[in-house]
Amino acid sequence: MNKFFNYILQGFGYVNAQDFMTTVFKCFYFGDLKIFLTVAFTFGTLREFIIDSSGLDLVFWLAFSFLIVAEWQTGINVDIKKGNKFRSRKFGRMILKIGVYIGILVLINSFAKSTKTIIFGDFEVNPFGWVFYVVVVAITFQMLISWFENLGNLGYKEAGGLAGIILRRYNKWFEFDGQKDGDNFNNQRNDSPE
Question: pTM of the prediction?
């Protein structure tokens, strides 16, 4: 039976049952299982706290983190292209902005979790739940526009054109660039990586 099991495992690229066990259940073969369990417990608890307090899942946070890094990196590249030096103050501004975004999301999510739903016709509505998702979309949308503007300033015409279309179409409601018309999006804050 053991020979047959090894034959099957070899078909999947394992040498034998021992090779299979040390690969699949690697955590039990670490030198110090306590360190592994401590790290796993810490990250699991942190993950649960972040998801529970923010109301957003891990996939969103991974995509949001990518967007933050992409916006920041392209902003630095725009500064370098313009001949400006990188200043650590801009990094602090980015960290503060992200902290405020996360604080707003956590606060609204806590309101949404503690607010009773309202029966509206045949629907249950949580007003803060609705506000929460509107704010999530608005923050993400604003960061996407900033990223597209940075890419446009780096010479990616499609991204700059897309930012212009979005600003002209939706700026009358949201004022993404701080003005009521989106026709001047290329002239706004081009000296800033945010």
Answer: 0.63
Could you write out the DSSP letters of every residue in 33-75? HHHHHHHHHHHHHHHHHHHHHH---HHHHHHHHHHHHHHHHHH
High-pLDDT (> 70) share of the chain, %? 84
- 8-state DSSP, 28: G
Tokens of 189: 């804050």
Which DSSP string do the residues of 95-164 spell out, in sequence order? HHHHHHHHHHHHHHHHHHHHSPPEEETTEEE-HHHHHHHHHHHHHHHHHHHHHHHHHHHTT-HHHHHHHH
Give the pLDDT confidence score for residue 22 in this predicted structure. Answer: 82
- Percent above pLDDT 90 for the chain: 4
Beta bridge partners of 120: 123
DSSP state of 171: H
Query: How many residues in total does the chain contain?
Result: 194
Q: Which pairs count as long-range contacts for 95-98, CB under 8 Å and 24+ apart, including other chains? A: 97/194, 98/68
Residue with tokens 């902005």, as numbered in its chain = 97
CA distance 7 to 66: 43
Q: Containing H/E element for 168?
A: helix 157-174
Q: Which residue has the tokens 């972040």?
A: 50
